[in-house]
Amino acid sequence: ADYPFTTLVPSLGVVRMDNEKSFVVADIPGLIEGAAEGAGLGIRFLKHLERCRVLLHLIDIDPIDGTDPVENARIIISELEKYSQDLAAKPRWLVFNKIDLLDKAEAEEKAKAIAEALGWEDKYYLISAASGLGVKDLCWDVMTFIIENPVVQAEEAKQPEKVEFMWDDYHRQ
């Protein structure tokens, strides 16, 4: 297909940090404009994100197709907001990928400029999926976040319903 991304099917993977620590990652295909209204397979992909505790928004720091990374990010953020305010409110980290294609200072400068243009005040990371640069630190921070932010179950799911029952009352009738 003629898309600026290659993942077309959501997939799950386990990231093992050590013998006792691991977490599951959901790799979701890139969203296109209109995904929240059903364009492409957007709604199916967005539903996968509802179960995630933190969203990692991967952005090519210097897109090979010449598109603007700020505009690309704004489209995705807009689709999250249109789909669900709960989803848009989830913790979200920017992850700038392909930093190995630039020198370190240029990558840092571009990442900072993109984050500022987005009004981004949360975490952001610079990585190279190809070389592994920055990936380990990102994974450890995700692991730490997951440990420090356990799943909160709905109150009604935590507490079984209490039903008053007296054996003697039952037999008297």
Describe this structure in words.
This is GTPase ObgE. InterPro entries: G_OBG, GTP-bd, GTP1-OBG_CS, OBG_GTPase, P-loop_NTPase. Residues 1-147 form the OBG-type G domain. One of its GO terms (molecular function) is GTPase activity. Pfam families: MMR_HSR1. This protein has 173 residues and is of the alpha/beta class. It has one domain (11-172): Rossmann fold. The protein is 38% helix and 16% strand. The protein is built from seven helices and five strands, in the order E-E-H-E-H-H-E-H-E-H-H-H. It has a three-stranded parallel sheet, with helices on one face. 13% of the residues are buried. The model has no long low-confidence stretch (mean pLDDT 79).
CATH class: Alpha Beta
Mean pLDDT across all amino acids: 79
Q: For this structure, what is the CATH homologous superfamily?
A: P-loop containing nucleotide triphosphate hydrolases
Largest sheet: 3 strands, parallel
Distance between the termini: 71 Å
User: From N to C, what is the helix and strand string?
Assistant: EEHEHHEHEHHH
Low-confidence stretches: none
Which class best fits the helix and strand makeup? Answer: alpha/beta
How many separate helices? 7
| CATH architecture group name | 3-Layer(aba) Sandwich
Name the overall outline.
globular
In spatial order, strands of the major sheet run 3-4-5
Please tally the β strands and state the result. 5
Based on CA atoms alone, the radius of gyration comes out at 21 Å
User: Which fold name is given in CATH as the topology?
Assistant: Rossmann fold
Organism: Escherichia coli
Domain OBG-type G: 1-147
Protein name: GTPase ObgE
GO molecular function: GTP binding; GTPase activity
